[in-house]
């Protein structure tokens, strides 16, 4: 039986890489030789804090919880994919095993990628796909004037970029980390705001003539960010909740504001089960057409054996870290 190297999360923040045996493929599955895996904020939640629904038990399966992956098909028992195909792997939490040299993936969680797009750029299509999927839900009609994004990590920055591409006149992106605020401000038509002390509300009101944002997207994964989102929305506007819950605790929101302004509040999750995976396909087209427009998001690269260090950097957000990727071979 073939053995490969894969990450093993043994407890909260306890990560190493070990040799594990690969099982035989079943019908409809492929074995992907992983090129790169991306670190997502949800990975950090699971590794350091436990998943919000409390279902995880340590140790996690080998390769988990990585779910942003790009590689090539090594062995296929699928009618859709052949050996050598470049693929974006978008497994759900049950199948997430991207932090490994090889990963077994059901064909329903694969999207064919262009071979001429660098894997470390194509990897951005996984998170961008979740953003595109969310925007279909949050704002399916003609663009509004102002959108405010709470949280300027990779997802929040992708929201900022896509909202501008979709025609919003101006976009505000807030974050607590100065480098992320600066990154937001370098995008055309996007204003970066250092969060805290009511700054994002102040700038939102300033940009909207006191009305508030047509759409507020919460991408911080923090209760304080959701409180800011409610404060910033205009009467009759929309609040899109994208970030993971911050644990299982109760959260207080200003119901008087919700009652007065009557916004539509929407939640986005589970892009991996979208029929046809069209949001991920659109994301790959966007990334592949102009890779230089997106490459700046990848700021740090590590080897698989350095996964623990990579995770700590992504968690600390120091050194200007945005998207941190792991070379799996």
Structure overview:
The protein is an alpha/beta fold and 329 residues long. The protein has ten helices and 15 strands. The strands form three sheets. Strands 3, 4, 5, 6, 7, 14 and 15 form a seven-stranded mixed sheet that branches. α3 (124-138) crosses α4 and α3 (124-138) crosses α9 (278-289). The radius of gyration is 20 Å and the shape is globular.
The overall average pLDDT, rounded, is 95
Order of helices and strands: EEEHEEEEHHEHEHEHEHEHEHEHE
- Describe the main β-sheet briefly: 7 strands, mixed
Question: Which term fits the overall shape?
Answer: globular
- The strand count comes to 15
Percent of residues in β-strands: 25-35%
Which residues form runs of ≥5 with pLDDT under 50? none
Number of helices: 10
Q: Whole-Å distance between the termini? A: 19 Å
Structural class by SSE content: alpha/beta
Rg, alpha carbons: 20 Å
Residues in helices, as a percent range: 25-40%
């Amino acid at each position: 039986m073939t053995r490969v190297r894969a990450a093993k999360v043994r407890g909260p923040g306890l990560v190493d890489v070990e040799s594990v045996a690969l099982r035989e493929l079943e019908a409809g599955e492929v074995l992907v030789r992983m090129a790169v895996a991306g670190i997502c904020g949800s990975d950090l939640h699971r590794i350091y804090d436990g998943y919000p629904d409390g279902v995880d038990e340590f140790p996690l399966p080998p390769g988990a919880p990585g779910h942003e992956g790009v590689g090539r098909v090594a062995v296929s028992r699928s009618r859709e994919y052949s050996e050598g195909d470049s693929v974006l792997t978008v497994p759900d939490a049950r199948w997430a095993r991207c932090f490994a040299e090889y990963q077994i993936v059901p064909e329903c969680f694969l999207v064919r990628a262009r071979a001429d797009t660098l894997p470390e750029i194509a990897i951005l299509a996984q998170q961008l796909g979740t953003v595109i999927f969310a925007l279909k839900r949050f704002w399916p009609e003609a663009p509004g004037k102002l959108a405010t994004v709470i949280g300027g990590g990779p997802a929040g920055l992708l929201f900022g970029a896509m909202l501008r591409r979709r025609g919003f006149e101006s976009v505000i992106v807030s974050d607590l980390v100065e480098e992320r605020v600066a990154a937001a401000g370098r995008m055309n038509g996007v204003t970066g705001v250092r969060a805290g002390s009511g700054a994002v509300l102040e700038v939102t009101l300033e940009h909207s003539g006191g009305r508030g944002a047509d759409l507020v997207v919460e991408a911080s994964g923090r209760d304080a960010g959701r409180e800011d989102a409610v404060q910033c929305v205009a009467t009759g506007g929309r609040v899109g909740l994208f970030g993971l819950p911050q644990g299982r605790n109760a959260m207080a929101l200003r119901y008087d504001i919700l009652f007065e302004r009557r916004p539509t509040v929407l939640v986005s999750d589970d892009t991996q089960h979208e029929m046809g995976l069209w949001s991920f396909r659109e994301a790959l087209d966007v990334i592949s057409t102009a890779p230089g427009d997106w490459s700046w998001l990848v700021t740090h690269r590590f080897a698989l054996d350095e996964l623990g260090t990579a995770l700590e950097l992504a968690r600390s957000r120091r050194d200007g870290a945005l998207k941190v990727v792991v070379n799996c071979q």
